[in-house]
Design goal:
The chain is of the alpha/beta class and 311 residues long. It contains eleven helices and nine strands. The strands form two sheets. The chain has a five-stranded parallel sheet with strand order 7-6-5-8-9. A four-stranded parallel sheet has the order 2-1-3-4, sandwiched between helices. The longest helix has 26 residues. The protein is globular, with a radius of gyration of 19 Å.
Length: 311
């Protein structure tokens, strides 16, 4: 398969057939990873640079593992010790990276649109690993893979995304992907954390947690992103948990086989109770991490093929 463009900057613009094909390819990489084998011929001779302007553990590490398992030369650039910390602009950084002739560039940045800007300035294929409050496409893809592996389909499922919707690029990418694939998406949270006009993207809005979770197939809790908030959006973390934290009592109104998800990192006792997060029968949070490596292998594989087609 090939993508319509040589970059992956967001879910927006992907056709459902592209999403399905990426998920199908990732399925093969799940099996390969579990077998302990690798395909080091796929990206042999290619260079992957991880450029993270924001801290990350899961995303950066899984891209690093994905690249190495496919045979790429992987470089992790530490922004804190790079020229960026000395005042270098993003465009100057782009010129520097372009001179290095890298093939794949994974970018996380606090500013929405930064990966798209870099994509205009470099010859490498650019992958958005999260930009501001815009998108996080590979997170949505790994969430979709996790759901499909457990439920068999995405179509017709009711997915409740709960908590800090307003500041979450994960919520936006999931909303775009899940609605495109036929899921019914609910967003659940206090009015201060639900962005205006989100219903225009096909989501149903709920401010009562139990109403939002009633008969849901999937319950996805989001991290409370206090670093992006202005003061006064929530009274306190304790009060937020009382009304919107995912615990056993609130989860009881969802379907008996409802899956519990969280993109991580988790704030236990704020967005989610430990009992729910660690429930082996319903929580797929650890599986999400495993699926992250497989999805990112699939994305790197496909973008490498797409780059050859555009060459």
């Amino acid at each position: 398969m090939r993508l319509p463009t040589r970059h992956l900057l967001g879910i927006e613009g992907l056709h459902p057939r592209d999403i399905s094909a990426l998920l199908d390819l990732a399925e093969s990489y799940v099996l390969l990873n579990r077998s302990g084998k690798t395909r080091r011929d796929v990206l042999r001779g290619r260079t992957l640079i991880n450029l993270f302007f924001e801290d990350s553990t899961r995303t950066r590490t899984s891209f690093e593992l994905a690249g190495k398992r496919l045979g790429a030369d992987v470089i992790n650039m530490s922004v804190s010790t790079s020229s960026v910390s000395k005042g270098e602009t993003l465009l100057d950084t782009a010129a520097t990276l372009n001179a290095m002739n890298c093939d794949l560039l994974v970018v996380r940045h606090k500013a929405s649109g930064a990966p798209a800007l870099l994509a205009q300035k470099v010859d490498a294929a650019v992958i958005n690993a999260g930009d501001g409050m815009h998108e996080h496409p590979t997170q949505a893809l790994l969430d979709a893979l996790t759901i499909r592996r457990n439920k068999g389909t995405l179509a017709g499922l009711t997915v409740a995304i709960c908590g800090d919707i307003a500041h979450s690029r994960v919520a936006r990418s999931n909303l775009l992907l899940l609605t495109a694939m036929g899921s019914r998406v609910r967003v659940v949270g206090p009015p201060t954390l639900i962005p205006a006009g989100i219903d225009q993207f096909g989501a149903s809005v709920f401010h009562d947690m139990r109403e939002g979770l009633r008969d849901a197939d999937i319950v996805m809790a989001l991290r409370l992103q206090t670093e992006r908030m202005s003061a006064g959006l929530i009274p306190s973390a304790r009060e937020f948990f009382t009304f919107y934290g995912l615990d056993a009592a609130k989860l009881a109104v969802a379907k008996p086989d409802a899956l519990v998800m969280h993109p991580g990192p988790m704030n236990r006792g704020v967005e989610i109770d430990s009992q729910v997060a660690d429930d082996a029968a319903r929580s797929v949070i650890r599986e999400q991490v495993e699926m992250g490596v497989a999805i990112r292998m699939a994305v790197l594989d496909v973008l490498a093929r797409t780059a050859l087609a555009h060459a």
